[in-house]
Amino acid sequence: MTPAVGQRYTFRRLNDTTFDSYIQFIGGKAPLGSPKCGFKGQLCSTKTNNSKFIIAGAVSIFTIAVIAIIIIVYKQIQYERNLDTMAWKIPSSEIDIKNVQARSSIFNSSIYSTDGDNEQSGSKGVSLKAYQNSLNDTEASIAKKKVFKKRTVKKAFGDSKNDEWINIEKWALGKYKKELVAVKKLCPTDFKLVRDIKKEITQLTKMRNEFLNNIVGLVHEPPKLFLITRYAPRNSLKDMLENPDMRLENMFIVSFVTDIIKGLRFLHQSPLGFHGNLKSSNCFVDATWRVVLGNYGMVKLRENEPCENDSDLLWTAPEILRSGNKKVSMTKAELEKGDIYSFGIILYEIYGRNGPYNNDITPYRDIVEKIKFPKKNTYMRPDLAGIEKAPSAVKLTCESCWNENPDERPKIKRARDMLVPITEGLRSNIADNIMALLDRYKNNLEDVVKERTAALEEEQMRTERLILQLLPAPVAHALKNGEKVEPEHYSSVTIYFSDIVGFTALSSQSTPMQVVELLNDLYTMFDKIIDDFDVYKVETIGDAYMMVSGLPDINGLNHAGEVATATLRLLQSVYTFKIRHRPDDSLQLRIGLHSGAVVTGVVGVKMPRYCLFGNTVMVGSSMEQKGAPLKIHVSPDTKGLLDELGGYTLEERGYVEFPRRGKLKTYWLIDDDPMVRKARLETESKHYPNLKRGLTAFMD
Q: Where are the transmembrane segments (predicted)?
């Protein structure tokens, strides 16, 4: 241990005796008499030295940047290793070829094909019958082939298994990892598996979507070069459209269009950004009747393939044709716009079912030349007369998609929105045909049940709303619950009756349809007006209109005021009402009001009606009959209630004879005071909530 440094101190005793001694301090220095910054920190500067923090921050940023660079470099190295390992490369020995002859002979011009054989022969497809006959022939050929395999000797590629690959002309059906796959032959010249092609294949094999015919991998064993994709057993869309025996319901047509749009949307939003070779022969129908898009991308992979036949160029956009169909030199945005053009042609083809140009007799080469080089702004496009029966939304979308100017073509999302009208009403069609036509939804029954349940609930709500318009809410709910509706007595209500003066003569001079339109227009207007009042419309019979207030929800004495004010508004509306077929004529409405006691009840079972009974009903009807055109005839009972409520102006008419009541002094209702009514409603609505409806008019 190193001895502490000491200092000499001299001590003097009281008796003047002195001696020397050493005191050892840690660090070799004596402690200070006070803290460096003072006991309260007053001796130090208040400014903080931030240099340490700056240095720490810089070091942190540098460290993060180094880590990020390391991660990026590591990922790039991993990516390059993945490219070199070529995980998508499939040995041909792992694929069991199941069928060669039938598929290559039947679908050489459609399924997975880019080469249009016999383009001018007029052959537009094959029927399902021919396809099935071919399958039957194939079984025999396979049996013969098995016998032949046993006898054959190794040839140029080694053994009989290689012979199967040699015999593939276009494509074949195979089995890979217990799954059926399509084996498509590629024919590029001078093919080299360079880095760009590896990147392209890696990207394509990683893309997965239910509306794509997903690429499984590539067989590259020179001279073998085959693309392996998912197998779609229901042929291509082109085959299906050209097959006269295949009857397609509208449900299928709309579904096909929707599926193509979904597939294109995915491609356009993906890193790939385009399809690049969209046509009906590259749209396949899988086992669930879903259209999946195939042969997408592969611009570099198929760059050196022989030129396509003219028949395969009918779906290609003009700007791509003018570039010599060199898609490798085009941008993603340009190829995306080319896809939209192709989609427009396919849409036309789906609804026309006569090929992309409606079986035009013009040679394909001439059509392609006219597309590439239009003369005097005359553009070669399919004739819309070929889809004359198609919805207008389809025609408009077709024209927009094949616009000569690529920038004016809609995005696929916009095209989808333009086609929304064709999907209207499709749900009910699916409900009628779901079990018979769509095995596509066999695994989605739960979703279908939910949709049907939601539709049923919506229908029930609609029915309930209709019942509530025909019957008072308490009565409707009671009938809905199977309860018996007992007759009820109401001690005081106000009843409104009205009819049209001269209606019989007017009807005789009008057609039945004109009479219906007249009454419908008039009473629809009345119904909207009385929505702002606590009244209940009882019924309309011919030109007669009846309503009541004070039932089924009581509102004190306010029923007289509600009916009176509503009547004034109805009469006011009649002055401006126009008869459609006789605009120069005006209606003469005659109205009667009466207040008193009534009994209500529901009459009938099949068509229940809510009816009012009692002398009050009879007197109210008589008040209307003994009234005058465009006047409101009021009984003394109603007049007394209005006087009690206040705010109403009435004029005495005189005495009128009534059955069972003798002579009664009656009145004309002239006007009301809105402010008095508002004040009354604000007070009374606290006790009778239904009166709040009347306050909404004042808020407006």
A: 53-74
- How does DSSP assign 65-127, residue by residue? HHHHHHHHHHHHHHHHHHHHHTTTB--GGGEEEEESHHHHHHSTTSTT--S-TTTTS------
Instruction: Choose the weakest-confidence range: 13-27, 30-44, 145-159.
Output: 145-159
Tokens read off for 457? 């609930």
Sheet holding 215-221, edge to edge: 95-99, 171-176, 179-185, 224-230, 215-221
Q: CA angle 513-518-521, nearest 5°?
A: 120
Return the CATH superfamily for domain 486-699: Nucleotide cyclase, GGDEF domain (3.30.70.1230)
In a 13 Å sphere around the CA of 405, the CA atoms on its Cβ side amount to: 3
Residue 319, pLDDT above cutoff 90: yes
Phi, psi angle pair for 117, to nearest 5°: -75, 145
Q: Say yes or no to pLDDT of 513 above 70.
A: yes
466-482, pLDDT tens digit by residue?
776 677 777 777 777 77
Kindly tell me the sign of the dihedral angle through the C-alpha atoms of 365, 371, 377, 378: positive
Reduced to 3 states, what is the DSSP secondary structure of residue 657? strand
User: Which stretches of 449-579 are assigned E, i.e. beta strand?
Assistant: 488-500, 536-541, 544-549
pLDDT band at 264 (very low <50, low <70, confident <90, very high): very high
Render 576-594 in DSSP notation, one character per residue: H---SS-TT----EEEEEE
CA 506/CA 582 separation, integer angstroms: 10
Nearest CA to 297 out of 324, 321, 316, 270 is that of 270
List the structure tokens of 569.
């508004």
Three-class DSSP labels, 269-287: HCCCCCCCCCCHHHEEECC
Question: Residue 214: what pLDDT?
Answer: 92
Question: Please, are residues 213 and 284 in contact by the beta-carbon 8 Å criterion?
Answer: yes
CA of residue 509 relative to chain centroid, distance: 50
Q: Which residue is listed with tokens 């880019």?
A: 114
Query: 9 pLDDT exceeds 70?
Result: no
Q: CB count, 10 Å around CB of 426?
A: 14
The residue among 246, 227, 231 whose CA lies nearest residue 284 is 231
> If you average pLDDT over every residue of the chain, what do you get?
80
Rounded distance between C-alpha atoms, residue 520 and residue 527, angstroms: 10
Burial class of 253 by CB neighbour count within 10 A (0 to 12, 13 to 18, 19+)? middle
Q: Where are the domains of the chain?
A: 92-427, 486-699
- What is residue 49's predicted lDDT score, i.e. its pLDDT? 52
What pLDDT shows up at residue 434?
46
Asked if the model's pLDDT at residue 218 lies above 50, the reply is: yes
Does an H or E element contain 372, and which?
helix 364-372
Burial class (CB in 10 A: 0-12, 13-18, 19+), 208: exposed
- 8 Å CB contact between 382 and 357: yes
Q: What is the pLDDT of residue 369?
A: 92
CA atoms within 13 A on the CB side of 156: 8
| 8-state DSSP, 439 | G
Q: Does the CA dihedral 97-99-103-105 come out positive or negative? A: positive
Extract the runs of DSSP E, i.e. beta strands, from 362-446: none
Count of alpha carbons within 13 angstroms of residue 532, beta-carbon side: 19
CATH architecture of 92-427: Orthogonal Bundle (1.10)
